[in-house]
Amino acid sequence: MPTQAKTAQKPHKRRKKGSLKEAKMRLWAAIERTTTIIENERQPETVLRAVHALSQSISAYARLNDACIGEPVSEAVAKQLAENLT
Which of 9, 24, 25, 81 is most buried, taking the most CB atoms under 10 A from its CB? Predict the structure, then answer.
């Protein structure tokens, strides 16, 4: 029992912070893997879960991609949309 008490008091090691580029790469890998599951899976329940996961992953990837690109592109897109509407 004393060994458990000693391990419980040890400070936790902090993980290295990830980068946005690394997060994008991992999300893209998840998107590719989920697409493969959807294409190859035969059970409808699994396909529905994979489609949901794919939808969530794509949404997160789009937000992350926007965060990586930053304001200049967002302003350019807004300008282009305004020009197309007129």
Answer: 24
Contacts of 66 (CB under 8 A, 6+ apart): 73, 74
Number of neighbours of residue 50 by Cβ within 10 angstroms: 19
Asked if residues 23 and 66 have their Cβ atoms less than 8 Å apart, the reply is no
Which amino acid is residue 34, in one-letter code?
A: T
Q: How far apart are CA 86 and CA 82, in angstroms?
A: 7
Q: Which residue has better confidence, 82 or 25?
A: 25
Sorted by where each begins, the domain ranges of the chain are 19-78
In angstroms, the CA 49 to CA 25 distance is 22
Amino acid at 24: K
